């Protein structure tokens, strides 16, 4: 019998329960996964569809339960400009875009279980996890010579895929021997560097605590594999697959927050480290972020960088700079402490959470986690438990994230651009929940589609429907043109309106860079000022130091007795503040007095000359002057000042130097009137 191009199979009984055969598992069951037919789906036409199809189903027969995994290939996993950097045998470093082939990393659910999810790799056997409620099962192949082999995998993709059929171990998370994990960020640092900033963010009255962002955000991630990690896994093939398994799981975590994590670069330090990485987790983070600032950022555009090492950091398994996403400090260091990739994925998700402004759950009064600590708890708890992995984000993590995205002090505007995804490659497949060329919609397979606006059989709009979903789509029809779909969030933001022709709200844009705001000038949606930054760093009442302080640089080994070295006036480099008298003492503080004026500088750690905070780009440093590339420059660095003159008095320039037209006026230059718009809306906010 043939159906959908896949032979049907008899379901086999599970193998015996084994105890102790796998060194990292207390007990497990042996199963042989069976690939099942896909019902009601159009066949793929691409040549490698049989190797890594868009949709795949596997039956797992355990002693007490039968599970069917329904999996979709994760097309958000890698960006179309994904690159790999490594060293050839002759010592030459190369950066290349791997040849186009479908990857083998999937996400999905367990059929018949509404509250379920799965993250699976089929590259070399079936490896990953599936979750039902708060219960996690892990699966891995039992065939020898997989992860940890020092020989590069040979053979074509078809041969590797055939290994998916065979004996596998399935076990519950409580039977996995995992290391007790602890985040390396101390309570005092969180209080000093994050909580004071969060206190400065004012949320709108319409904000609902515990909610997640309405708009999808995207983290373009760059992963660096440190030399000891490379030696641990032995070859590039093993490293590639482990990193992608980990990112696949991180992405699944962040989907809970309406985020997607897209891998856009992998760098493998196979011949030695480019930054000093030691068992000292704090110095390793500092050195990695310094390398990122002066080397990586120049070569590859990305939002966040995470380093993976096999070095033992001691009690802490990860460390990250707080509230630093979209800045020079956007990154973290992580110890790969478990044989299963779930542990590393949890660590990176946690440290990335710190980059996104999330505090430890234990530090926030009234913080709620829907999963008990014994069942794994939530991602941002400071310490994991030894028999379970975290399952959710807590209410306070969601609140911190919302404040981070809204707070102008954080400048988190690199997360709104939709990355160019690998999903654009290959033939379209109706039923995979991706709208591809030739499709008008895709709500999944017929039995799982819940959207009345889409026909799941042919992925076309239902009769009479104009749209399926979006801020400007209501009951299958476009919202009236001129309807507000995204209000201005603050003084530097612009409101967006439905245009009557598209289901999505137009791209979120901001007022033109250099537009006056409060005590400064707008920059990419923020209004950065010295006072704002000093209060976020040291607390309410703090202010920028006297100009005398900005003539000096601190010597190595700063102490209260040290006298600074004169270096030339620069008010756009290190951020000198005058702390409020109520500011708590800090272990990361250098202070000196010049002419009776107090100069306070936050540093990464005591006896360090590494400044913690530099003046934010776009900060007003004089009349018609802003900080740009660490120098005080004229507003002309943003472009000509008459940009809005091209908008014919019916719009203003946005931060991309494009006309943002009033409702009823058509882009690109707002000179022709459009009809059918709501007339009561006269101008953008």
TrEMBL record:
<dbReference type="GO" id="GO:0002693">
    <property type="term" value="P:positive regulation of cellular extravasation"/>
</dbReference>
<dbReference type="Pfam" id="PF01421">
    <property type="entry name" value="Reprolysin"/>
</dbReference>
<feature type="domain" description="Disintegrin">
    <location>
        <begin position="427"/>
        <end position="513"/>
    </location>
</feature>
<keyword id="KW-1133">Transmembrane helix</keyword>
<dbReference type="InterPro" id="IPR001590">
    <property type="entry name" value="Peptidase_M12B"/>
</dbReference>
<dbReference type="Pfam" id="PF01562">
    <property type="entry name" value="Pep_M12B_propep"/>
</dbReference>
<dbReference type="InterPro" id="IPR002870">
    <property type="entry name" value="Peptidase_M12B_N"/>
</dbReference>
<feature type="domain" description="Peptidase M12B">
    <location>
        <begin position="217"/>
        <end position="419"/>
    </location>
</feature>
<dbReference type="GO" id="GO:0006508">
    <property type="term" value="P:proteolysis"/>
</dbReference>
<keyword id="KW-0812">Transmembrane</keyword>
<dbReference type="Pfam" id="PF00200">
    <property type="entry name" value="Disintegrin"/>
</dbReference>
<dbReference type="GO" id="GO:0046872">
    <property type="term" value="F:metal ion binding"/>
</dbReference>
<dbReference type="InterPro" id="IPR018358">
    <property type="entry name" value="Disintegrin_CS"/>
</dbReference>
<feature type="active site">
    <location>
        <position position="351"/>
    </location>
</feature>
<dbReference type="InterPro" id="IPR000742">
    <property type="entry name" value="EGF"/>
</dbReference>
<feature type="disulfide bond">
    <location>
        <begin position="643"/>
        <end position="653"/>
    </location>
</feature>
<dbReference type="InterPro" id="IPR024079">
    <property type="entry name" value="MetalloPept_cat_dom_sf"/>
</dbReference>
<dbReference type="GO" id="GO:0004222">
    <property type="term" value="F:metalloendopeptidase activity"/>
</dbReference>
<feature type="binding site">
    <location>
        <position position="350"/>
    </location>
    <ligand>
        <name>Zn(2+)</name>
    </ligand>
</feature>
<keyword id="KW-0245">EGF-like domain</keyword>
<keyword id="KW-1015">Disulfide bond</keyword>
<dbReference type="InterPro" id="IPR001762">
    <property type="entry name" value="Disintegrin_dom"/>
</dbReference>
<dbReference type="Pfam" id="PF08516">
    <property type="entry name" value="ADAM_CR"/>
</dbReference>
<feature type="disulfide bond">
    <location>
        <begin position="661"/>
        <end position="670"/>
    </location>
</feature>
<dbReference type="InterPro" id="IPR034027">
    <property type="entry name" value="Reprolysin_adamalysin"/>
</dbReference>
<keyword id="KW-0472">Membrane</keyword>
<dbReference type="GO" id="GO:0022407">
    <property type="term" value="P:regulation of cell-cell adhesion"/>
</dbReference>
<feature type="binding site">
    <location>
        <position position="354"/>
    </location>
    <ligand>
        <name>Zn(2+)</name>
    </ligand>
</feature>
<feature type="binding site">
    <location>
        <position position="360"/>
    </location>
    <ligand>
        <name>Zn(2+)</name>
    </ligand>
</feature>
<protein>
    <recommendedName>
        <fullName>ADAM metallopeptidase domain 8</fullName>
    </recommendedName>
</protein>
<dbReference type="InterPro" id="IPR036436">
    <property type="entry name" value="Disintegrin_dom_sf"/>
</dbReference>
<dbReference type="InterPro" id="IPR006586">
    <property type="entry name" value="ADAM_Cys-rich"/>
</dbReference>
<feature type="disulfide bond">
    <location>
        <begin position="485"/>
        <end position="505"/>
    </location>
</feature>
<dbReference type="GO" id="GO:0050839">
    <property type="term" value="F:cell adhesion molecule binding"/>
</dbReference>
<dbReference type="GO" id="GO:0006954">
    <property type="term" value="P:inflammatory response"/>
</dbReference>
<dbReference type="GO" id="GO:0016020">
    <property type="term" value="C:membrane"/>
</dbReference>
<dbReference type="GO" id="GO:0051044">
    <property type="term" value="P:positive regulation of membrane protein ectodomain proteolysis"/>
</dbReference>
<keyword id="KW-0479">Metal-binding</keyword>
<keyword id="KW-0862">Zinc</keyword>
<feature type="domain" description="EGF-like">
    <location>
        <begin position="639"/>
        <end position="671"/>
    </location>
</feature>
């Amino acid at each position: 019998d043939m159906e959908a191009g896949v032979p049907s199979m008899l379901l086999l009984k599970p193998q015996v329960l084994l105890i102790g055969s796998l060194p990292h598992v207390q007990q497990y069951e042996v199963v042989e996964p069976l690939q099942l037919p896909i019902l009601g789906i159009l066949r793929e036409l691409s040549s490698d569809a049989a190797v890594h199809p868009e949709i795949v189903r596997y039956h797992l027969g355990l002693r007490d339960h039968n599970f069917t995994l329904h999996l979709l290939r994760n097309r958000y996993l890698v960006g179309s400009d994904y690159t790999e950097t490594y060293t050839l045998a002759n010592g030459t470093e190369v950066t290349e875009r791997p040849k186009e082939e479908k990857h083998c990393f999937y996400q999905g659910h367990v059929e018949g279980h509404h509250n379920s999810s799965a993250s699976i790799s089929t590259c070399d056997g079936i490896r990953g996890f599936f979750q039902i409620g708060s219960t996690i099962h892990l699966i891995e192949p039992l065939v020898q010579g997989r992860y940890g082999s020092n020989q590069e995998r040979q053979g074509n993709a078809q041969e590797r895929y055939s290994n998916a059929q065979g004996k596998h171990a399935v076990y519950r998370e409580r039977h996995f021997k995992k290391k007790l994990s602890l985040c390396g960020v101390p309570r005092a640092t969180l209080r000093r560097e994050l909580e004071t900033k969060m206190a400065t963010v004012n949320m709108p009255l319409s904000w609902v605590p515990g909610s997640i962002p309405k708009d999808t955000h995207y983290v373009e991630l760059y992963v660096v594999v440190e030399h000891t990690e490379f030696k641990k896994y032995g070859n590039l093939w093993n490293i590639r697959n482990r990193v992608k398994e980990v990112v696949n799981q991180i992405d699944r975590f962040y989907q809970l927050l309406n985020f997607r994590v897209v891998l856009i670069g992998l760098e493998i330090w196979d011949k030695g480290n480019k930054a000093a990485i030691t068992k000292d987790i704090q110095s390793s983070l500092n050195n990695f972020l310094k390398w990122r600032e002066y080397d990586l950022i120049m070569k590859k555009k990305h939002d966040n960088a995470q380093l993976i090492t096999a070095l033992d950091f001691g009690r802490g398994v990860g460390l990250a700079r707080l509230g630093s996403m979209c800045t020079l400090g956007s990154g973290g260091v992580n110890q790969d402490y478990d044989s299963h990739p779930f542990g590393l994925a949890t660590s990176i998700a946690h440290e990335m959470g710190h980059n996104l402004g999330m505090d430890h759950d234990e530090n926030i009064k009234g913080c709620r986690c829907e999963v008990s600590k014994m069942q794994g708890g939530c991602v941002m708890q400071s310490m994991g438990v030894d028999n379970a992995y975290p399952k959710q984000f807590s209410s306070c993590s969601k609140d911190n994230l919302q404040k981070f995205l809204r707070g102008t002090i954080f400048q988190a505007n690199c997360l709104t651009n939709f990355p160019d995804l690998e999903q654009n490659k290959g033939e379209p497949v109706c039923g995979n929940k991706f709208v591809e060329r030739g499709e008008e919609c895709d709500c999944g397979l017929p039995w799982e589609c819940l959207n009345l606006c889409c026909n799941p059989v042919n992925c076309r709009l239902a009769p009479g429907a104009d749209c399926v979903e979006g801020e400007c789509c209501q009951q299958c029809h476009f919202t009236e043109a001129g309807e507000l779909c995204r209000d201005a969030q603050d003084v530097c933001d612009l409101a967006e309106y439905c245009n009557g022709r598209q289901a999505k709200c137009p791209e979120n844009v901001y007022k033109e860079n250099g537009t006056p705001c409060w005590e400064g000038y707008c920059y990419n949606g923020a209004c950065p000022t010295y006072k704002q930054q000093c209060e976020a760093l040291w607390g309410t009442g703090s202010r920028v130091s006297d100009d005398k302080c900005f003539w000096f640089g601190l010597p190595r080994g700063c102490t209260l007795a040290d006298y600074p070295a004169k270096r030339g006036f620069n008010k756009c480099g290190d951020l000198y503040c005058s702390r409020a008298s109520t500011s708590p003492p800090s272990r990361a503080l250098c202070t000196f007095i010049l002419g009776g004026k107090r100069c306070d500088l936050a540093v990464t750690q005591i006896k360090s000359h590494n400044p913690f905070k530099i003046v934010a780009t776009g900060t007003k440093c004089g009349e018609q002057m802003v900080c740009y590339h660490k120098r005080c420059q004229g507003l002309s660095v943003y472009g000509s000042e008459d940009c809005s003159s091209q908008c014919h008095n019916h719009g203003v320039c946005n931060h991309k130097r494009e006309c943002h037209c009033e409702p009823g006026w058509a882009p690109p230059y707002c000179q022709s009137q459009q009809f059918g718009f709501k007339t009561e809306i006269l101008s953008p906010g």
